[in-house]
Sequence to fold (194 residues):
Amino acid sequence: DTWGFLLVVTGLLILYSQLPLGTALEFSSDESYETMKPFLCNQGHVLYKEIWNDEPPVFTIVLAAAFKIFGTSILTARLVAAGFGMILITVFHDLIRRRSGQWCALIATFFLLSAPGVLLLSVATMQEVPTMATGLLAAWLLFRWKEQRHWAWLLLLGAVMAMAIQIKLTAVLLLPAVALEFALLSGKRQGKSP
Fold:
């Protein structure tokens, strides 16, 4: 099971290393705005009061913290985004592996990465990939709950999904799928009990 995961991570690292993360001017049209907000926060400006923002605050706070720790640069912002991109793609791979097997997961991951713009969006300083990555991580926690039915997994799932929604509200699009999966998994458990 781990060989597929290692193959995906190695492939991503190779692909990411070939991208001009520190030198490209812009990977997406919103990237400059999403990078400016945490930069201004680090300069002492207050989000929502002095900085206009129509999105929840978590991604801006994460980038501001990264700027404070590693320095204010586009490379820092894109490495944070690339981390979320890795989470998205590896969790995507693992969810498909759990449902359909290793080869289906590898093929689906290949097609995901081959789709136009996905690779650049997975390293661009924007909120969409971090939102979906965090939302898929919540779905992955549901499968962990399936394997080890403990309420702590469900609490963690709720916290991670709440964080996804606080990155960008589009994470609510994942809620029906997670709820349906939960209902299906709960039904299987009830069907097996005497």
In short: The longest helix spans residues 74-100.
